[in-house]
Amino acid sequence: MAQVYYDKDANLELIKGRRVAVLGYGSQGHAHAQNLRDSGVSVVIGLHETSRSRAKAQADGFEVLSVREAVASADVVMFLMPDHVQADVFRNEVAPFLKKDAALAFAHGFCIHYGQVLPPADRDVFMVAPKGPGHLVRRMFADGKGVPCLIAVYQNASGQAREIGLAYASAIGGGRAGVIETTFAEETETDLFGEQAVLCGGVTELIKAGFDTLVDAGYQPEIAYFECLNELKLIVDMIYEGGFSWMRYSVSDTAKYGDLVAGRKVVDEYTREAMEELLKRVQDGSFAQDWIAENLCGRPRMRAWMRAEKNHPIEAVGKSLRTMMPWMEAKEAPEN
Ligand code: NDP
Ligand code: MG
Ligand code: MG
């Protein structure tokens, strides 16, 4: 069973006594910074010169410095910028300006686990990763609650890395919900596998395959959209709140019988083998290498795939059907 820590296990003084540089003021950055400040921690925001987030952080009352200046003044440096810029920022803006004994902190393990950021051996390196988006991390904290966090220690130079990390997790509200111990390897590999096999990759392909099958057989795309995409939310909400058994308790007996007969024919041995293959590529670093190379050459394959996905008929049908749903604030992704 996982080791879980709570506020009672944390010593807040360990983080109150340190100045934290929050690098990035996006989804996670604004939430960490505001929760830390409300917990009595001294916080400075580090942003690049052209950052659009500067004005927002200033309007929220924070001292905003360049990344170098923020790093030079901090005892804990938390990386809350996009993962694919962290290696460059670390090399050019962080490493040369780190105070003696300053700790490095992350909310995701990718850069450390795959050697993109090589921290000096004499530093504490830990992770505090909330298991929810930043706005929830902030809202729960303001409500006196919290979002569960993961904690991991990669380097424990001071002998206190876990305790400092726990204090940080507690100061952003994680200790109210529970802080689960993991490792950089486990967090990174399970995160990548989950988004590829199930959450993003698996789900979108499953939806498309169901939609295409119905449309190719001559059914109307609008009806196929409702059956294969729109209703997914209702099912997922039930699974989220009460597991498979709550969902099966709530749907009709016909749906339940169909589920049990058919599901394993769609996600069969072949799919499970494909998942094992994905997991191997995550574990041996081939996926990370592929993603880093894709970034280095300007994301050509990713751009082409994104264009093709955008042109799939399900997107146009969805856009038009969502105008019929007044309860929903329909969203549209910006062009890129
Ligand atoms: P966002 O994309 O929301 O925020 C990025 C922030 O970093 C923005 O303020 C951006 O500024 C700033 N930024 C961009 N480039 C630089 C730079 N060179 N130097 C300094 N700041 C820069 O990121 P997230 O909050 O989503 O992710 C941050 C970290 O948290 C990642 O490691 C991610 O994996 C992890 N994480 C994210 C979760 C989530 O729910 N989003 C959940 C758990 C972990 P601007 O855009 O104004 O230029
Ligand atoms: Mg994830
Ligand atoms: Mg991820």
TrEMBL record:
It comes from the Bacteria. Residues 2-182 form the KARI N-terminal Rossmann domain. SUPFAM superfamilies: 6-phosphogluconate dehydrogenase C-terminal domain-like, NAD(P)-binding Rossmann-fold domains. GO terms for biological process: isoleucine biosynthetic process; L-valine biosynthetic process. Pathway: Amino-acid biosynthesis; L-isoleucine biosynthesis; L-isoleucine from 2-oxobutanoate: step 2/4; Amino-acid biosynthesis; L-valine biosynthesis; L-valine from pyruvate: step 2/4. One of its GO terms (molecular function) is NADP binding. Residues 183-328 form the KARI C-terminal knotted domain. Substrate binds at residue 252. It catalyses: (2R,3R)-2,3-dihydroxy-3-methylpentanoate + NADP(+) = (S)-2-ethyl-2-hydroxy-3-oxobutanoate + NADPH + H(+); (2R)-2,3-dihydroxy-3-methylbutanoate + NADP(+) = (2S)-2-acetolactate + NADPH + H(+). Binds 2 magnesium ions per subunit. The active site is at residue 108. Mg(2+) 2 binds at residues 191, 227, 231. GO terms for cellular component: cytosol. NADP(+) binds at residues 25-28, 51, 53, 134. Its cofactor is Mg(2+). Keywords: Amino-acid biosynthesis, Branched-chain amino acid biosynthesis, Magnesium, Metal-binding, NADP, Oxidoreductase. The keyword Amino-acid biosynthesis applies. Mg(2+) 1 binds at residues 191, 195. Its EC number is 1.1.1.86. The keyword Iron does not apply. Involved in the biosynthesis of branched-chain amino acids (BCAA). Catalyzes an alkyl-migration followed by a ketol-acid reduction of (S)-2-acetolactate (S2AL) to yield (R)-2,3-dihydroxy-isovalerate. In the isomerase reaction, S2AL is rearranged via a Mg-dependent methyl migration to produce 3-hydroxy-3-methyl-2-ketobutyrate (HMKB). In the reductase reaction, this 2-ketoacid undergoes a metal-dependent reduction by NADPH to yield (R)-2,3-dihydroxy-isovalerate. Belongs to the ketol-acid reductoisomerase family. NCBIfam families: ilvC, PRK05479.1, PRK13403.1. This is Ketol-acid reductoisomerase (NADP(+)).
